[in-house]
């Protein structure tokens, strides 16, 4: 694929020290190794990433712009919490992008190899609180959607979809721990695949809209109601 979600991309040859530090810290935030609300110092992050002080400082400046960390005067940095408003806005933006990407991919048609891979990914499920199966499901879900974005024929749209996935991944990691596998959501993913396979633009747009709306509601409900909400340091802003 031309554009890969960060969860599927582990090889970063030829990057500067700052870029490597940025990606390393960002992955630790997204994967919840640095949990929302955690306080860290540049020294902590230098040890974690094996990077120098200057690359870590520059990486933290970028992460501030990304909305992932905040400066604590004379105390270091804080990993910013997820908020309901932020999650809702992100999911709504995802829906706008992915419905268009699905319609375009259906219109253009996907290679048979991609369709076969998507169908294979549809078989992935997970068990509640089983971190290994949740990780596999998360990778499969994001790869499924990335294949659609990769086939939409619009590079700017595809890049935007992948950027949203990288932000969405942290939210999904928080919510999937308390959200049982949904058979109906699996049927919705299959409906998207069938519409793209059949090159039915209208059906692809409608199926992706239903799927992403359902996903948004599940995510918001899980963030608001899960017993782990305090542990995840979720800030509730209505």
UniProtKB/TrEMBL annotation:
InterPro entries: GntR_C (IPR011711), TF_FadR/GntR_C (IPR008920), Tscrpt_reg_HTH_GntR (IPR000524), WH-like_DNA-bd_sf (IPR036388), WH_DNA-bd_sf (IPR036390)
Gene3D superfamilies given in the database record: GntR ligand-binding domain-like (1.20.120.530), Winged helix-like DNA-binding domain superfamily/Winged helix DNA-binding domain (1.10.10.10)
Protein name: HTH gntR-type domain-containing protein
PANTHER family: GNTR FAMILY REGULATORY PROTEIN, TRANSCRIPTIONAL REGULATOR, GNTR FAMILY
GO molecular function, one term: DNA binding
Keywords, in A-Z order: DNA-binding, Transcription, Transcription regulation
Keyword Transcription attributed: yes
DNA-binding found in the keyword field: yes
SUPFAM superfamilies attached to this UniProt entry: GntR ligand-binding domain-like, Winged helix' DNA-binding domain
Sequence ranges assigned to domain HTH gntR-type in this UniProt record: 15-82
Organism: Streptomyces yokosukanensis
Pfam families referenced in this protein's UniProt entry, alphabetically: FCD (PF07729), GntR (PF00392)
């Amino acid at each position: 694929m031309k554009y890969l979600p960060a969860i599927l991309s582990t090889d970063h040859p030829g990057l500067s020290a700052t870029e490597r530090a940025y990606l390393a810290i960002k992955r630790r935030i997204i994967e919840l190794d640095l949990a929302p609300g955690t306080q860290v110092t540049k020294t902590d992050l230098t040890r974690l990433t094996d990077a120098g002080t200057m690359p870590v400082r520059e990486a933290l400046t970028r992460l501030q712009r990304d909305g992932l960390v905040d400066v604590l005067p004379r105390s270091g940095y804080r990993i910013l919490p997820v908020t309901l408003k932020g999650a809702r806005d992100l999911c709504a933006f995802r829906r706008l992008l992915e419905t268009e990407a699905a319609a375009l991919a259906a219109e253009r048609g996907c290679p048979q190899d991609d369709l076969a891979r998507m169908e294979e990914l549809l078989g992935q499920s997970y068990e509640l609180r089983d971190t290994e199966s949740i990780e596999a499901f998360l990778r499969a879900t994001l790869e499924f959607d990335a294949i659609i974005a990769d086939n939409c024929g619009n590079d700017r749209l595809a890049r935007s979809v992948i950027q949203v996935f990288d932000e969405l991944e942290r939210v999904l990691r928080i919510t999937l721990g308390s959200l049982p596998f949904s058979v109906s959501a699996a049927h919705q993913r299959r409906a998207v695949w069938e519409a793209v396979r059949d090159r039915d633009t209208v059906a692809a747009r409608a199926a992706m809209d239903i799927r992403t709306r359902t996903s948004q509601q599940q995510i918001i409900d899980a963030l608001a109601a899960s017993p782990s909400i305090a542990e995840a340091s979720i800030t509730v802003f209505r």
